[in-house]
Amino acid sequence: QVRLVESGGGSVQAGGSLKLSCVVSEYAYATYCLGWFRQVPGKEREGIAVIVSDGSTGYATAVKGRFTISKDNANNTLYLQMNSLKPDDTAMYYCAAKQSYCSWSRNDYASWGQGTQVTVSS
Predict the structure, then answer these.
(1) Residue 113: phi, psi to the nearest 5?
(2) pLDDT tens, the chain, 122 aa long
(3) Counting Cβ atoms within 10 Å, is residue 8 exposed (0-12), middle (13-18) or buried (19+)?
(4) DSSP string, 6-51
């Protein structure tokens, strides 16, 4: 069982920044695809950023150019740096892990963090 523990959510005004962290089980960190998803009530959980084991990254159109996904190999930690935040970014944010290739579908990820709330006010 892959364990993921998130932190870093909070409230910020539009235009501000937040950085989310997710500590990942050591055995999964090196070889798994890791991703960030978000969900608002009544909507599907959507993938917004993924990072492959070799460090390659991918972003959803809605966050590209504003959010950056990265890994700290020394601490088995996944990050999501969020800049130029908008009220539409308000959601519960989750980190997730899956074996092998990356996917944008939540159904392909078996392991999830507990979620952290991000609220952006106008």
Answers:
(1) -80, 175
(2) 789 999 999 999 999 999 999 999 876 667 789 999 999 999 999 999 999 988 899 999 999 999 999 998 888 999 999 999 999 999 999 999 998 889 999 999 999 999 999 999 99
(3) middle
(4) EE--EEEETT--EEEEEEE-HHHHTTSEEEEEEE-TTS--EEEEEE
Rounded distance, CA 14 to CA 111, Å? 31
- Asked if 49 and 57 touch (Cβ cutoff 8 Å), the reply is yes
Provide the β-strand partners of residue 91. 118
